[in-house]
């Protein structure tokens, strides 16, 4: 039995993992979907000081109160930043990490820093000033895929649920830098690419082929990879396939590039 701590991206909450959590439970595992402070059904708890450290502490407290060991921490999109922070602080309770359709933030990076398009970043920060009082980032329409990501495979009912339950993102969660000591740097990790939303494993292979030493970490034996042919929200579009991938990642499976 494995404990899976599930942390989703911006504007969402633990509710988005409902189907995956049920499937993990059916297969004998312990799913722990996390709703971060100010998100989902905890949106009313957001305050002026809610930031990335708040979200890191949310996950740390789940690890502590559920008394889990060798947990698999799954970070989707923005959710990876607090996942990495929590793993750094309580590496003794973490067995491995899953990077679910997200980037590779490093020590000192903030959420706005890792957005690939500076124009999108500037637009979001402007929106927070104009519509969120400088404290919140109101959720945009689902039609804005530059922010939400690709919605391939998400059924109309789930799209409606996303729109209805989307919560404003506390701005401090995106502007406060991630601070890492390196305590979790050697943990086994798995990258899961949703190929309708962006490049997959083949792009990593091309980067490694350049011989650039910066990419050597991608080929370490502790790192595995999976491609999922779907959009940015596989927990909604392909919950069964995602469940299989998470269980296989926990078992140390996945394609190696070394």
TrEMBL record:
Keyword Hydrolase: yes
Pfam families registered for this protein in UniProt: Abhydrolase_6
Record's keyword terms, sorted: Hydrolase
Leader peptide range in chain numbering: none
Molecular function as annotated in GO: hydrolase activity
AB hydrolase-1 domain location: 4-243
InterPro entries the record matches: AB_hydrolase_1, AB_hydrolase_fold, Sec-Metab_Biosynth_Hydrolase
Statement: the UniProt record of this protein carries the keyword Acyltransferase: no
Name of this chain's protein: Alpha/beta hydrolase
Source species taxonomy: Bacteria, Bacillati, Actinomycetota, Actinomycetes, Kitasatosporales
